[in-house]
Every structure is written in structure tokens, then in C-alpha cells.
Amino acid sequence: MLLVLVSLLCCVPAAKACLQCDRRIRLLLEDFVLSAPTVNNQIEMKKICDHAYVTYRETSWERKGVIDPTTLYRARTEYQSEFDRFLKTKHTGSVTFEAIQILEKGRKILEKHLDTFIRDGLCPNKCGLLKQRVIDCISCRYKIYICPSPSGQLDCGEYPVLAEEGGQAVLNCFLPWHRLLLERPEYHYSWAPGVPGTEKLIERDFKALVVTDDSSVVLNQLHVDEQGTYRCSLLDQSGTVFYQVTFLLAVSHLPDQTHRPMITLPSLPHGDNYSPFQPTAGLLVPAIVMVTVLSLAASVGLLVVLGMMMSQRRAAEEPSRRKEGKNTHNTV
């Protein structure tokens, strides 16, 4: 009987569904089968596990049959936690019934995480072409899942961009699903000069601008002649185009500045050498005479003042001299 059980375990499918692509889950279920108290219980649990694998596979195939590493990790972590809680709980009922319960719990966990992955993680591109790396739930090997554009076109639309002359414009064509692309795609920027949106452009109208790993470019010190139609294309090393977007850049003139009116001085009445401060011949002689008279008057006034000061000084010294002479006579 033990030989039969071992042969059955050897025939356990290595991977029949997304959840079994994790080696820890496979080992966990194998240990669970061997933990049954009797050989008959182990055989019965082996049959239950095989049936559970079938339901896991159906659940996986109903949901594209693929999974990404992040979703597989989340499903495995949650199921492992539930399984540990199940093993730590004392069970008094049928061993086979309890096995069915925990395996069905695993199917529901797988279903929940696959639904989330299909809704939010698989083919998130709303436009453009995405080649997404996923895990095949049957072979448990990585493969490329092609996500075509829902609209059937690589062009992801046009976006107007307004800027002023001398200002700045930032063009950014990044979308979150670009991180899922394989290798290292590059952003190719090109442009067609002219007023954007006024005429239909063809491929030869565009001139190469820059090729960069960065999704954005910054245009500084803009001129009016730099307005035009700017295009961003995402390409891989082989030249495959995954995504394309167009920016319609319009550069407006700066508003006219208000200038203060300049004051115009009147022309000189007597030629360029005329100056209101330059004396004429008619005024020169009276001016000299007046200066001379004022100088003589000032000199005379100064002499009079000096004479008066000397007279007052002599008058003040005369009594002192008389007193000194009187004292000298009495002494003799």
C-alpha cells in the first residue's frame, strides 16, 4: 500500500495551475498529504488534491491562463498564511472533509488574485502596443503576452501645449505601463515647424530632435519660430514602435511693453554754441564796472572800520598813560 502511495505522489503534476507554479505551495501540499494518519487517508487525500488541481487549472484558464510574479507572490503568501492557521487548529471532524475545505480555500484565493491581475495588471495599455512578460500557468515558464491597442492604433492622441515667447515648455509622453516593456526602449522626439494643426503632416515633414531614455524634454527660451507639431515615439532596439503621441506647441508673442513718452527739448535759438549762461558783449562791460565799483566800496568801508577801531583803542589807552606819569612825578 505504501508503494502505491509513493507512486501516486510521483505522478502529482508539477504544475497544473497558477498557484502550483510556486514551489513552496507544491511542497506544502505534498507534506499535507503525507501528514494523514493512515495510508488509506493519504490515498484519499491524494485523490482530493488531484481534484483540487483540476479546479485550480480551470480557474486559471478561465482567467487567461497567465499570472505575473507579483500576483503569484501575493496569492502564495495569503494561501500559506491560511494553511498555517489551518494546521495549528485542532480538528475533530473527517480528515478528508477538512482537506477539501482548505484546498477550496486555496482556489478562492487564487481566483481573487487572478481577477485583480486581469483587471488591473494584464494589458494595462489603453493605447499603443505592449509586450508583457508573464508566467504561463501550465508550463510555469515565462512567456511574452501580446497586448494590442484596444483602438487598433499606436497613436495615443494629440495634446495642445501653450507657451509664451522666452518661456519654457515641458513635453512628457510617459505612461505607467511603459515600465512593463522588455529591454530598454527609447523615446524618439521629432518635430515639424509651423503653426500646429493648420495642415496635414506626413512622415517626411518631421525632423529628428532627440533620442533619450528619459520620457520628457524641456524646451527653454522659446521663440515663435519654434512652435510646431512635436511627436514622441517609443521604440525598442529593433525599431518596433510601441507608442506614439503628438504635442501641438503654440508659442505666443509677449505683450507690447508700455513706453513713457520722451521729452523733446526746444532747439537753440542762436545756433549750437548758444547757452543761456554764456555772457554776451553788451552785458560784459556793465558787469565789469559793477564789480569794480563794489570792490572799491568794500575797500573804503574796510579802511573806515579799521580807522575807527584804532581811534577807539587810543582813547582807551590815554587815561592809563596819564596815571603812570603822575605816579612817577610823586616818587621823585
Description:
The structure is a single chain. The protein has 332 residues and is an alpha+beta fold. Among the domains are: 13-121, no CATH class; 154-252, Immunoglobulin-like, CATH 2.60.40. Helices cover 43% and strands 20% of the residues. It contains six helices and ten strands; from the N terminus they run αααβααβββββββββα. The strands form three sheets. The protein has a five-stranded mixed β-sheet, with no helix packed on it. It has a three-stranded antiparallel β-sheet with strand order 1-2-3. A hairpin with a 5-residue loop joins β9 (228-235) and β10. The chain is elongated and about 165 Å long. Mean pLDDT is 83; it is low at 1-16. Belongs to the Izumo family. Residues 148-242 form the Ig-like domain. It holds the Pfam family Izumo-Ig. Residues 1-17 form the signal peptide. This is Ig-like domain-containing protein.
What's the alpha carbon Rg, rounded to whole Å?
A: 53 Å
The SSE string, one letter per element, is: HHHEHHEEEEEEEEEH
Multimeric organization: single chain
- Treating each run of at least 4 consecutive H or I residues as one helix, how many helices? 6
Helix content: 40-55%
Organism: Perca flavescens (American yellow perch)
Protein name: Ig-like domain-containing protein
Domain Ig-like: 148-242
Signal peptide: 1-17
